[in-house]
Amino acid sequence: MLFNKDFMLGAATAAHQVEGNNVGSDYWIMENLEHSVFVEKSGSAVDHYNRYEEDIDLLKKAGLNAYRFSIEWARIEPVEGQWNEKEMEHYIKVIDYCLANGIEPVVTYHHFSSPAWLITKGGWESPDVVRYFERYAKYVTEHVAGKVKYVCTINEANMRLQMAFLIKDITERMSKQSEIQNQEGSVQVGVNLSQNQSQMMMSMMETAKAFNIDDPRKVANFVSQASEEGDLLVMKAHNAARNAIKAVDSSIQVGLTLSLHDIQCVDGGEENAKKAWDDEFTHYLPYIEKDDFLGVQCYTRKIFDANGANSTLETGPKTQMGYEDYPMGIVNVVRRCAEEFKGAIIVTENGIATSDDERRCEFIKEALTGLNDCITEGIKLKGYFAWSLLDNFEWQKGFSMTFGLISVDRNTMERTPKNSLKVLGSFIEA
């Protein structure tokens, strides 16, 4: 079973997680607080900023034909309204290197990390974020027009709402520390809930002070809880960016990506499952109906009963991230999205955090076999990007989560391709 040459088969990264020394970002500040919730600092990460050619070469050698990566807003606009042409030129070089090697670049304009100055101005809860992001999208597109065919405006645009649900649940469980820690696996992003309540409070206060915000509850990073208005602001920012991109180059295919679970239920859980899917997906449909594609990202499932999500109903082993190893989740989610979203679909992230690369190989085989069936059924699936090309910095969890198709010795920065990279490449026509 092989995908044809027109299918984008590749791997993905995010700038802050792989590049290193992203000193102008909000994440850099939060990592370096005295009572940081991050278990370690990103530092030089895996030095992809300087070694992108080597990494793209390894991707190409494995037979892959596409690479999804993000442009770091904090590098491009480190000070409000001041563009860094040198940094923009760096990303153009990455794009050009992809093109010179027959690799399709799929570029994400925002992948969780933001310029620190944006957070001091209210971040992702301020209406001003819409025009700030629109201006940034216009600037970048003016430089990449004619080179890039696919742009994801915002990675996991629903993550802020998922964080709101997580924090609400944590608040209700505050008296049971062990139960709080078990909630880490309920979102598909690296969060650290191992600190005690006092440490968390210190971290919140230090974060607010770092961004010159009086109330710790008003610090609005992208991976923080959203109000209903904040959730809508992300959609407004996406729409404004899409329009700005199209105004510069109407040929660019534009979409966003969503973090989705394969929502399942047992008897009595139907209404809870329906609400969960609406929260994660359905209520966004009016804001993405003009998009050219939808980026689908799924790592696992959630099973609902009459009381809500019930992880005890999951039968598979847990990944390093704490959620269930469930490769068919991405297949089920693609089918379900295709019922409601009529544009093209791209799997922009899917993978498994494990130290067992043999299991990663099997995970890839199971997921891609199911996705090939989706294409046979007539679903407009245009690509699949494994997360991640490299073992990298999994946000608050640090470097311990090994999602990568390539391992990295962070002392020497030596790259070692895993067998899973070769297995992934074997699914595309030569």
UniProtKB/TrEMBL annotation:
<dbReference type="InterPro" id="IPR001360">
    <property type="entry name" value="Glyco_hydro_1"/>
</dbReference>
<comment type="similarity">
    <text>Belongs to the glycosyl hydrolase 1 family.</text>
</comment>
<dbReference type="InterPro" id="IPR017853">
    <property type="entry name" value="GH"/>
</dbReference>
<keyword id="KW-0378">Hydrolase</keyword>
<protein>
    <submittedName>
        <fullName>Beta-glucosidase</fullName>
    </submittedName>
</protein>
<dbReference type="Pfam" id="PF00232">
    <property type="entry name" value="Glyco_hydro_1"/>
</dbReference>
<dbReference type="GO" id="GO:0008422">
    <property type="term" value="F:beta-glucosidase activity"/>
</dbReference>
<dbReference type="GO" id="GO:0005829">
    <property type="term" value="C:cytosol"/>
</dbReference>
<dbReference type="GO" id="GO:0016052">
    <property type="term" value="P:carbohydrate catabolic process"/>
</dbReference>
<keyword id="KW-0326">Glycosidase</keyword>
